[in-house]
Specification:
The complex is a heterodimer. Chain A is of the alpha+beta class. Chain A contains 13 helices and 20 strands. In chain A, helix 3 packs across helix 7 (279-294). Chain B is mainly beta. Chain B has no helices and eight strands. Chain B has a four-stranded antiparallel beta sheet, with no helix packed on it. A three-stranded antiparallel beta sheet of chain B has the order 5-6-7, with no helix packed on it. The chains are: A alpha+beta, B mainly beta. The interface between A and B is large, with 61 and 45 residues. Strand 8 (232-242) of chain A pairs antiparallel with strand 8 of chain B.
């Protein structure tokens, strides 16, 4: 039996191995989606491919990459050598969508396979019908670019140039994709070196025993935690609308003793749009909130997976069948699985006196993707995501407001690039980028706000660019509230068609507009497809805040006053939803009027319900 | 004995073997026997999402926010986004 001090040292060393590999990945990569958005993941796996140490980044990938390791072992049985690196991005094998490439490397010690490291980035391009990979108009997987169920990219430490060249021949901006590949190889190299250094120091038997114990410990701790939580069943539902069609992700989570079952029966049949996801993607989607909410102090590994069961109907939006289109899955069904699971886990935690402070309303459930593409001001082809999406919005908790632009549950390290970074890479100018007033879900504790921003072409050799938008949340608010909290606001993606406006309305005034209502062009909703940003076009985006928690009438009136002063809530909503009346100069709460107003709203609720 | 169901709901275990009930956390008004769906025992206010949280809340025409209200005191117990034809989301505690 391993001594507890050595066990803890090895546990922490494993975590540091992952952290150092993440730093390497970011330092070598050249794309904003990796460096700024942190759309990445690095983890370590046992020799059989089971998850050993889940790292930070997009947590959807931790379980999927485990399946990728297992799949590579099955496919290359007997032909896996020291120094190999495998590439896998087929969603029907293990990955989430083709753009998120896994690079998987075996780690050998004294000729024996002792572990795997795996990482992913959303590569600059994958050769899909739309630049950047998200292809809202794709009709099947065959239109979504390069897809491999597993291919050996490096053999015994030597790059297979024929394979790399073939791959790079199929993507746009191959030099940037090559840099993505290099960053992942470097990342895996660092993970391998640090793992081997640890094994050299402590011996393989000791490290192996610690790894086995670490997995057993995680299982033991999660089962203990589950036994402390109440038994019950909790339901949630997420709507995704595409081109006037509505699809649902429906979840019933049942907890009994020390096991949790996530049952997605009742979810929509698979869609003709690329929002579908596969079995492994759904599994990853539900674990993305489970890891941080239930296992915040437990190592994320195979032990956490053992007490969890998932049921997904065949041929459904959460378990689609090849060749259903899938490229938008990560901001489609996977994100909705994640949000649905976040809510049911939140409800379960909220039912526990001991764990209620770990509960949360849903965070930034409308995660969208907008990829710009075209010639930039440096006369180079540029493809890249508007990283604002990674700023997210925090769901309210049981003791505090959600954090404004507080990130996302499935990616604890996500963030957005600053405006100057975006303007340096693309021929764009931001007219404004700011918190979106009234976007946080009202509640006793308010959801964190989302954001609104507007961009126009600037210094563009070809007059502008185009963009691919895969947006959701315009018809349905998606960041659900908890225990009486409201959801966050619905979203908007607006193309302001200033080029088409009457000449008499067009002048330079709107070149510095602070609202799109100051512009002369018609406002067209553009949540799905490829659109121009040319000439005097503008693109405006607003996204939801996090869900609120508790009855808004229970919010401390002084907190509402602070919201109004900060500009995160309007006075009208302070009155109508929170029942808070401010004095004439908006410097203080009128306590008497507030008490009367709140009673009025309660009576109004009962009257409306009776009608 | 009272147990937590959520921020706005409690379970009151009946004395002497009486049936436990899910009750409003503010006024203790009973809504349903524990272990069964409690929402049918609440008052339902279904409001269009458009305009609900501000002038810039614009959603699909048929999309509502269901607000489940204590029929006794008017406390807001839970919410859910829904299309009219979709069933209530039911949450139950079994232990």
């Amino acid at each position: 039996m391993i001594d507890p001090i050595t066990f803890q040292i090895i546990r922490h060393r494993l975590y540091r191995v992952v952290e150092e590999a993440v730093i390497t990945l970011k330092n070598v990569s050249g794309s904003a989606i990796t460096n700024e958005g942190h759309d990445l993941m690095v983890s370590l796996y046992r020799p059989d491919g089971t998850l050993l140490m889940g790292g930070v980044g997009f947590l959807h990938h931790l379980t999927s990459a485990a399946e990728a390791c297992k799949s590579v072992q099955r496919r290359f049985d007997g032909k896996i050598y020291e120094g190999d690196v495998y590439l896998l991005n087929d969603p029907y094998t293990a990955a989430l969508h083709t753009s998120d490439i896994y690079l998987i490397a075996p780690i050998h010690h004294a000729g024996q396979l002792v572990a795997w490291s795996a990482c992913f980035v959303h590569v600059y391009d994958i050769g899909a019908m739309s630049p950047g990979g998200f292809s809202p108009d794709s009709v099947d997987i065959y239109t979504e670019g390069f897809s491999s169920p597993g291919i050996k990219l490096v053999e015994r430490g030597e790059m297979r140039d024929d394979v790399l060249d073939t791959f790079l021949n199929m993507v746009r901006s191959p030099e940037m994709v090559a840099l993505d590949i290099s960053s992942m190889i470097a990342c895996n190299n660092v993970a391998r070196e640090r793992m081997l250094a640890m094994i050299d120091k402590y011996g393989f038997e000791t490290v192996d025993a610690a790894c086995a114990e670490l997995i057993d410990q995680s299982e033991r701790l999660l089962r203990e935690r589950l036994r402390e939580l109440p038994d019950g069943a909790w339901e949630s539902r997420q709507y995704i609308s595409v081109k006037d069609e509505v699809f649902k992700v429906v979840l019933k989570m049942t907890k009994q003793d020390d096991e949790l079952v996530f049952d997605f029966t009742g979810s929509s049949p698979q869609a003709p749009y690329a929002i579908n996801c596969t079995y492994w993607a759904s599994l990853g989607g539900l674990f993305a909130p489970l890891f941080p909410l239930l296992c915040y102090d437990i190592t994320w590994n195979e032990g956490v997976i053992r007490p969890i069961k998932m049921i997904v109907p065949d041929d459904s939006i959460v378990n689609c069948t090849r060749p259903a289109p899938i490229s938008v899955a990560t901001v489609g069904a996977i994100q909705s699985v994640n949000s649905a699971a976040c809510l049911t886990i939140g409800k379960m935690l909220d039912a526990s006196e001991k764990y209620k402070e770990e509960a949360t309303a849903v965070w930034h459930a409308n995660h969208f993707a907008i990829f710009m593409f075209g010639q930039n001001q440096h006369n180079r082809e540029a493809i890249g995501i508007l990283t604002e999406v990674f700023a997210g919005s925090g769901g309210a908790r049981t003791f505090a407001d959600g954090v404004d632009l507080g990130g996302e549950i499935p990616n604890p390290i996500s963030r957005m690039a600053n405006v100057e970074t975006m303007e340096a890479g693309f021929p764009l100018r931001y007219l404004f980028r700011r918190r979106f007033t009234d976007s946080g879900g009202p509640g006793e504790f308010r959801g964190g706000t989302g954001m609104e921003f507007c961009i126009v072409p600037h210094d563009a050799p070809q007059g502008g660019m185009h963009y691919v938008v895969s947006g959701k949340g315009t018809d349905f608010p998606m960041s659900d509230g908890l225990s009486g909290g409201y959801p966050g606001a619905p979203c908007k993606y607006i193309w302001v068609r200033n080029n088409d406006a009457d000449a008499s309305d067009r002048n330079l005034d709107y070149a510095f507009a602070q609202t799109i209502d100051d512009m002369p062009g018609e406002q067209e909703s553009v949540s799905w497809g490829v659109y121009p940003l040319l000439g005097e076009d503008a693109l405006f985006v607003q996204w939801d805040g996090g869900g609120g928690y508790g009855d808004p009438l229970q919010r401390i009136p002084g907190a509402v006053l602070a919201d109004v002063s900060a500009g995160t809530v309007t006075e009208a909503i302070a009155d109508r939803v929170f029942g808070v009346i401010l004095d004439s100069d908006k410097q203080a709460v009128d306590q008497g009027a507030t008490e009367t107003r709140r009673q009025e709203i309660r009576s109004q609720r009962l009257m409306e319900a009776a009608e | 004995m009272t147990r937590r169901f959520s921020r706005t709901l409690v379970v009151n275990d009946g004395d002497g073997g009486a049936v436990a009930h899910v009750c409003c956390g503010t006024c203790d008004h009973p809504l349903a026997a524990n272990g069964t769906p409690w929402k049918p025992g609440a008052k339902l206010v279904a409001s269009p999402v458009t305009g609900l949280g501000g002038d810039r809340w614009i959603a699909g025409e048929r999309v509502v926010l269901r607000q489940f209200v204590c029929p006794n005191c008017g406390a807001l117990l839970d919410t859910e986004t829904a299309l009219p034809e979709d069933p209530f989301l039911n949450d139950v505690l079994t232990r």
